[in-house]
Amino acid sequence: ERGEEIDRREAENFIRLHHAENPVAGPVEVRLREVLAEIDQTGTYTHTTGELTFGARVAWRNSNRCIGRLYWRSLQVRDRRHVDTADGVAEECVEHLRAATGKGRIRPTITVFAPDRPGERAPRILNDQLIRYAGYVREDGSVLGDPANAQITERALRMGWRGEGTRFDVLPLVVEAKGALVLREVPREVVLEVPLRHPAFPWFADLGLKWHAVPAISNMALEIGGVTYPCAPFNGWYMGTEIGARNLADRDRYDQLPVVAERLGLDTSHDRTLWRDQALVELNVAVLHSFAEDGVTITDHHTEARRFLTHLEREERSGRVCPADWSWIVPPLSGAATPVFHRYYEDVRLTPAYVHRPPLM
Ligand code: HEM
Ligand SMILES: N=C(Nc1cccc(CNC[C@@H]2CCCN2)c1)c1cccs1
Predict the structure, then answer these.
(1) Is the predicted ipTM greater than 0.85, yes or no?
(2) Which of 74, 281, 314, 324 is the most buried if burial means most Cβ atoms within 10 Å?
(3) Per-residue pLDDT tens for 229-243?
(4) What is the value of pTM for the model shown?
(5) In a 10 Å sphere around its CB, with 0-12 CB exposed, 13-18 middle and 19+ buried, how is residue 327 labelled?
(6) Which one of 65, 234, 301, 302 would you pick to mutate in the ligand 1 pocket, going by the greatest count of ligand atoms within 8 A of its CB?
């Protein structure tokens, strides 16, 4: 079958956007004629590397749930559209982590693999992120590690993988392409981690908590001008609250608030003592302090909120709408203590875009 028919209007809109914002790309009519002719002949068209790079950056600029868009122009784009085997994709994901991590100076990077082609499905990474901690479900239903990753952990175990059995076992990549399913360990040298300690409480280090430096999303598709790239892992750096207010705090994640509150000597007998809130703050202080002390890029929610409003004002000065989803932009800790809380946004959907892929059946 011809795969989904490329929407000619989407293609034309994107080519016009590219030329409007990049005059160096030359006369738009010439490129438009080429693209529309290629669609007529083959049912799709191939982006130039320049178009792909611009498209990936604008898709970030259009991401209405992202607070970190101020640096959208600096996204590093690794054009790997010629890579379409499971082994090739796994290898390039490892190289992506090496390139993006540095020694802690994290570089926002995306690797774009082969798109869906008429008659040939694109490769897919089954992990939600390139670096994830295993979640082992035990007989009594409790989970050792990250409960959010129980399903992919189960799949990896069924495929023969074995972890060390700690709370922070890095999962292998599971990649599917051309009907093959491949398991690939992520080499330790490309997995930078930060052990968590607190500047004022020596006992904090004894909790044995740590987190990985690089968040790299591998379960979203990149849509540019009617072409879908289902396999396009991208990374930035963390905002501390993601680790301290969600990953380590949520009850269906590492559920560490009661542990931290106990060690703080708080009265946890009633919510109204706000023991959860006090534990949250100290957990987030520990995350920001540990990353900064190890020279690993991270941002706090106050700084990031200010940067986002700077970005929004710049976009409006450029005559563009800056779409934003209030419920995702406002941080999960101290919302009203940040400036992004105290205003409205336009939650429109623009393309190019990063979209959630339909779940694999
Ligand atoms: C450079 C530093 C960056 C920071 C600090 C940042 C921060 C964030 C945060 C905190 C979220 C909400 C995540 C959640 O609550 O689970 C988010 C969402 C998002 N970010 Fe960014 N981001 C950054 C870079 C990027 C880059 C490089 C891209 C893509 C090229 C990107 C695309 C997105 C998208 C698509 C979402 C929404 C995800 C969804 O709908 O599930 N961000 N960002
Ligand atoms: N800092 C980051 N955080 C981030 C961005 C997009 C998506 C996610 C993961 N979000 C999924 C979780 C689980 C449900 C709601 N939040 C994290 C980045 C990840 C990749 C680039 S920036």
Answers:
(1) yes
(2) 324
(3) 999 999 999 999 999
(4) 0.97
(5) exposed
(6) 65
